[in-house]
Amino acid sequence: MMTSFGRRLAGILLCAGLLAGSPAAAKDSPFPFPIGGPFTLSDHAGKQVTDQNFCGRYMLIYFGYTYCPDICPTNLQVMGTALESLGTKDAAAEAKVTPVFITVDPKRDKGEFLKEYVANFHPRMIGLRDDKAQTKAVTDAYRIHAMKVVPEGYEPEDYLVSHSSIIFLMGPDGNLVTLFPHDTTPERMTAVLHKYLSGEAS
C-alpha cells in the first residue's frame, strides 16, 4: 500500500501535465494554432450551456476534476483570488469576467457535488460537464491532455486523472487572449486581467 504522502505526491505529478501541443507560458502575442471554439456542455444545475452563452464576456477557463488532490484547487483558488483583487480595483471590470471550471472527469463530477465544489472558489464560478463524447470534444478544442490513471495501491474507483494544468483567458469574441501556467500568482493574474479589461493591452 502507498503511504498518504505517496498518494499526495502521485496526485500532484499526475495533475501537473503540460498543455498538449501548445505553449507552456502566458503569451501576449498571436498563437500559431487555434485554441478553443464552439462547445455544448451542461452547467452544475443541469442546464445546457454553449459558448454563445458567454458571447460578449471574458472567460477564465480551467480544466480539471474535483477529486484532484492539489493542483486543481490551487489554480481555482488563484482564479478566485485574482478576480476578487480585480474587483477591489475595478468592480465593473471584474463583473465582465466569468470564471469557468470544466471537468475532465464527468463520471464522478455531477450535479450538486460539482456545484458545491466550484462555490468554494468564487461565487460566480460555473461548473461545466457533459458526457464522455462532449468532454472529449471540448478538451480537443482547447488542446487539453486528460487520461485516467490508477496508480499502484489505489482502488480502481479511486483513479486519478492526468491532465493539463493551465488557465485560459478567452475574449468577448470567443478567441484566446492569453494563457496562464499553473504557477501563476494571483497578483500576476490580476495585473494581466486589469491590463486587458482596462483596454491597456496593445
What is the strand content? 15-25%
Shape: globular
Q: What would you call the structural class?
A: alpha+beta
Q: For the record, give the distance between the C-alpha atoms at the N and C termini, rounded to a whole number.
A: 54 Å
| Tally of distinct domains | 1
Largest sheet: 7 strands, mixed
CATH topology: Glutaredoxin
Report on the structure:
This protein has six helices and nine strands. The chain has one domain: Glutaredoxin (3-Layer(aba) Sandwich). It has 202 residues and is an alpha+beta fold. The strands form two sheets. The protein has a seven-stranded mixed beta sheet. It starts with a helix and ends in a 5-residue tail after the last helix.
What's a concise summary of this model?
The protein has six helices and nine strands, in the order H-E-E-E-H-H-E-H-E-H-E-E-E-E-H. By secondary structure, the chain is α+β, with helices and mostly antiparallel strands. 34% of the residues are buried.
What attributes does this structure have?
202 residues, alpha+beta
Topology, pairings included?
Elements: H1 4-15, E1 40-43, E2 48-50, E3 58-64, H2 71-89, H3 91-95, E4 97-103, H4 111-119, E5 126-129, H5 132-141, E6 146-149, E7 160-163, E8 166-170, E9 176-181, H6 186-197
Parallel strand pairs: 3-4, 4-5
Antiparallel strand pairs: 1-2, 1-5, 3-8, 6-7, 8-9
